Amino acid sequence: MVGMTRNWIVNQLMLGEFRSYRDVCRKSVLVALKVSVLAYALNLAAHFLMYGTGLLPYSLREALVVATVLTPPITFIIAVGSYMIVGFAIHDLGVSRAELERLSRTDMLSGLANRRAFQDTVDQCARDKAMVVFDIDRFKTINDTHGHSTGDTAIVAVARILADAFPEPCLCARIGGEEFAVFSADMPFADFAALAEIARVRIAGLRIGAGAGAFGITVSGGIARGRAEQTFGEIFSRADTALYEAKTGGRNRIVLAPQADRPARDAAAVLPDTSTMAA
């Protein structure tokens, strides 16, 4: 009984988590009211106990008046102030923790998801899935010729096109250097492949820089589909192999990886050019 009572009191006085400062104020007032009622009840109980044992130095009526007039408002003011201070601290810590978690899963240059977030999403998906891996062609030459700052500009530009071409809930990520990946489990594979080709064509139309120094970039890609039980590593390995074939086959193209259960002699296929679709 004592344990149940203690747990009930603790549950009533717990602040919990807060979505906003308004939520802190609202919960602080509610908790302060409960604390005031509890303090008032304890005060009354103590006075009645002292009165029953003859230890009360003044009349019971005067004691009850003082307890009623002073205990609830003083307790409420102290409790609401204390709980608001603690609540604001809890709220700020929660916001900071959520922001740190978001930052830990975001690539700072591109603004896309990073490799960790991408891999976790793929591995946690229990449905058939699709993945396309893109790599900016001749990126080292871009850095060597135009500088790393221009290379960063190219990465940001590609990231924006990918984020625009693939609607949610597709997940776009920069998984390293000049390499990007997109994951989906919520659209037909043919539609996903079509979006990948549209993104490639749009990237091929980019111009980085201005004036006479402006230059174009292209990407190569490898696309693969996976079964529900397959992991990121399994699907990525096949998509990456298809990407290599796109690179060695002339670049600026997307190669479709054969399904995992098909023999290797079923060569990967190059996706048809959909330049008119991307116009």
Which labels suit this protein?
single chain; 279 residues; alpha+beta; 58% helix
Describe this protein's structure.
The structure is a single chain. The chain is an alpha+beta fold. Helix content is 58%, strand content 12%. It is built from nine helices and six strands; from the N terminus they run ααααβααββαβαββα. A six-stranded mixed sheet has the order 2-3-1-4-5-6, sandwiched between helices. A hairpin with a 2-residue loop joins β2 and β3. The chain is elongated and about 100 Å long.
List the helices and strands and how they pair.
Elements: H1 2-13, H2 21-52, H3 60-104, H4 115-124, E1 129-136, H5 139-146, H6 148-165, E2 171-176, E3 179-184, H7 189-204, E4 219-226, H8 232-248, E5 254-256, E6 269-270, H9 275-278
Helix pairs in contact: 2-3, 5-6, 6-7
Main sheet specs: 6 strands, mixed
- Topology order in helix (H) and strand (E) letters: HHHHEHHEEHEHEEH
The number of helical runs is 9
Number of strands: 6
Give the overall average pLDDT: 84
- Beta content comes to 5-15%
What does the overall shape look like?
elongated
Low-pLDDT runs of 5+ residues are 263-267
What is the percent of helical residues? 55-70%
How large, in whole angstroms, is the Cα Rg?
32 Å
Order of the strands making up the biggest sheet: 2-3-1-4-5-6
Helix- and strand-based class? alpha+beta
What is the straight-line distance between the termini?
74 Å
